[in-house]
Design goal:
Helices cover 31% and strands 23% of the residues. By secondary structure, the protein is an alpha/beta fold. Among the domains are: 160 residues, FAD/NAD(P)-binding domain (3-Layer(bba) Sandwich); 101 residues, no CATH class. The mean pLDDT is 94.
Length: 395
C-alpha cells in the first residue's frame, strides 16, 4: 500500500500530526498503532469507577494557548477541572511542599538552618556548572538536600548510575536560586519559578486518555490498530513489507524496530537508553490534600503517588509509580509500561542528533518523546506535532 505519509504511533504526537495534515487538506496518510487503542503514554483505564493513567500521571499544562485550543476543540473546556498545583515531598518524617529548596521554611528551625548552611557553602564554592548530573546536584543544592532528597529520589526514578546522566535537560526542574531560598525562609512562602504544571487541567470524569480517544475517532479510517512495526526498510521507506510512503513520521521508541536497520543507524539506536514504570492502584484514602507526592526513601519501592481522590471528584484511592527495576508487590490494579522516560545520558544529545540527521536524509522524521528521545510533556508533544505537519505539508 502506497501513501504520502506513514505515521508510526497513535499517541499525542502522532494524532496531533495527523489531524493537522487532515485540516490542511492532506488525507493520504495511515497511522500504524501496535495497541488496540490510541493514546500512547497518555492512555487511561477505568478502575473502581474512576480513571487511572497507565503511563503515569499525565495532565494538561495551561501555558500553550494553541495546544489548549486544539485539545478543547475535541473535548470542551467545561469537561475539565482546573487546578493550582499542590504537590508534596516526603523526606524522613517530614512532609513539605514542592519544590524542596523553596519550602525549607516548612521544616523545624534547626533543620532550616542546616539546609541553608549547606546551600550557602555550595554557593561559595561554585565554579563552572558541572556536566554530570550528580555533580550538579551537589553544586546546586549542597550536601544536605543532595543526600536527603535529590540523590535518593533520582536513584529511585532513574534506577541507574547517576554519573551517566548529563545536565543539558535541567529546564525540566524548578529554577530556585539561593536568594529565593533565603527569601522563602524569611517570608514563609514560595519564591522561584516552576517550569511547568504550576496550573493544569484534568478531565472531570474520564482519565487524560479520553481526549486522545476522541481525536482518534475523527481519524478512524486512517488508523490500523494492533499493528506493530517490526521491520523498517529505511532506504525505501517500507514498513513490514506492506506499507510504503513518501515520508515516515515515527513517534514510537526507535528500539522497537532497530534490528534490520542499516548498521550505522542501528548502532545509534542501541545507544539510546530508557526507563520503564509500573503503575499500581490502592483503594485506601490518600490522607493528604496534595495532587501527587514524591518519596525519597529507598525503603519504599515507588517514587511517586498520584492522589486520584484529589483530582477526580467522587473517586477513591491513589496509584503509585515505580521504576520497573524496583518492582515489588502489585496493587489492586497493576500495569507495566515498558517505556516511561528517555534517559538523559551524557552522549544522548549527539546520538539522537546523528540518528535524526541520518533518518531525515531518507525522509524519515522523529517526533515526540520517543521519536526525538526527549522528556517532553504532552502539551509540548502536541505543539511539535502541529508544527511538523505544517512544515512537511509544504514539501
Amino acid at each position: 500500500m502506497k501513501t504520502k505519509f506513514i505515521i508510526i504511533g497513535a499517541g499525542p504526537a502522532g494524532l496531533s500530526f495527523a489531524t493537522t495534515l487532515k485540516k490542511l487538506g492532506e488525507c493520504s496518510f495511515v497511522i500504524l498503532e501496535k495497541e488496540k487503542e490510541s493514546g500512547g503514554l497518555c492512555r487511561s483505564v477505568m478502575h473502581n469507577a474512576a480513571p487511572i493513567d497507565t503511563g503515569g500521571g499525565h495532565i494538561l499544562d495551561v501555558r500553550r494557548k494553541n495546544v489548549l485550543d486544539f485539545i478543547f476543540s475535541y473535548m470542551p473546556e467545561n469537561e475539565w477541572n482546573f487546578y493550582d498545583r499542590n504537590t508534596k515531598i516526603v523526606v524522613d518524617n517530614h512532609i513539605i511542599s514542592y519544590p524542596f529548596e523553596a519550602n525549607i521554611w516548612q521544616f523545624p528551625m534547626e533543620e532550616q538552618i542546616e539546609y541553608l548552611e549547606s546551600i550557602a557553602k555550595a554557593a561559595l564554592l561554585q565554579k563552572e556548572k558541572p556536566g554530570h548530573f550528580i555533580d550538579w546536584i551537589y553544586w546546586k543544592f549542597g550536601d544536605k538536600i543532595a543526600d536527603k532528597y535529590m540523590i535518593p529520589y533520582n536513584q529511585k526514578i532513574w534506577s541507574c548510575d547517576l554519573n551517566l546522566l548529563g545536565t543539558y535537560w535541567l529546564e525540566k526542574l524548578p529554577d530556585v536560586s539561593f536568594r529565593d531560598t533565603l527569601a522563602s525562609c524569611l517570608s514563609r512562602k514560595f519564591y522561584g519559578t516552576l517550569p511547568g504544571h504550576a496550573q493544569f487541567y484534568y478531565p472531570k470524569k474520564q482519565g487524560y486518555g479520553e481526549v486522545f480517544l476522541r481525536i482518534a475517532e475523527t481519524l478512524k479510517e486512517h488508523i490500523r490498530y494492533e499493528y506493530p512495526v517490526k521491520e523498517l526498510d529505511v532506504t525505501n521507506r517500507i514498513i513490514n513489507r506492506e506499507f510504503t510512503a513518501d515520508y515516515i513520521v515515527n513517534t514510537a521508541p526507535w528500539v522497537e524496530f532497530s534490528e534490520k536497520m542499516p548498521d550505522d543507524i542501528s548502532k545509534l539506536v542501541k545507544a539510546l537508553q530508557y526507563t520503564s514504570v509500573d503503575i499500581d492502584y490502592y483503594a485506601e484514602p490518600s490522607d493528604t490534600d496534595a495532587h501527587w507526592t514524591y518519596y525519597a526513601s529507598p525503603d519504599l519501592s515507588y517514587h511517586r503517588k498520584i492522589h486520584r481522590d484529589n483530582i477526580v471528584a467522587g473517586s477513591s484511592g491513589y496509584w503509585t509509580e515505580t521504576n520497573a527495576k524496583r518492582r515489588n508487590k502489585k496493587g489492586l490494579f497493576h500495569f507495566e509500561n515498558p517505556y516511561a522516560y528517555p534517559l538523559n545520558t551524557m552522549d544522548k544529545p549527539s546520538t539522537i542528533s546523528a540518528l535524526l540527521s541520518k533518518m531525515e536524509k531518507y525522509h524519515i522524521f522523529g517526533l515526540g518523546r520517543w521519536g526525538e528521545w526527549e522528556h517532553y510533556n504532552s502539551d509540548v508533544v502536541i505543539e511539535r506535532g502541529i508544527q511538523m505537519a505544517e512544515k512537511l505539508i509544504k514539501k
